Amino acid sequence: SLTMTLPPSAAIRLETHEAMINAEGIGRTHLHATWSGLGRAEVVHAEKQLATVLPELPSEGGVTLTIGDMGRVTMEHDRNYDLLAFGNRLLDDEAIYGHLIVFAMMLNMEEILVKLLDYARVVRNIVRSENVAEPKDIIPAKRMARFIARLLAEIGTDGKFEAPEEPSALEEAVFHIVSRVNEAE
Asked: For the packed helices 141-153 and 110-129, what is the interaxial angle rounded to 10 degrees?
């Protein structure tokens, strides 16, 4: 008994440009979705007596989703949205993530969402504090070891951990493994 109510002006259109799949489950798909007037959707779970209003998405837009024959997924937005800014708002603004947690409660997924949000904050904190702008920024073995060690050590800290300047024992152990992998041992 889960109900989602969109504003009366909401319009969603889905176009299928290509969709094929063979007996082995391999195929290609090319979809395009557009929307307008979405506003904020209200979601109600009658049995659990829960209700929430989901965060407002861009009121107009479109997205093209392509799934290649080998499973490669690409997604292109029709407009240039600042997804990084939206992601940061999602992680930092309780007025946004609080509603998502209530929605997750309706689906019995609250614990999973809370852990995902926590881990996303950890990753963001590490990326920011280690000045990682692109994946290539963690290629040197020492930087990769520090990045991996911090990911492992900071789970559950909500992204508020401040790493010491000196390498930790975990970082040294990860560096040893990364170095051996790099040398193909």
From this structure: 150
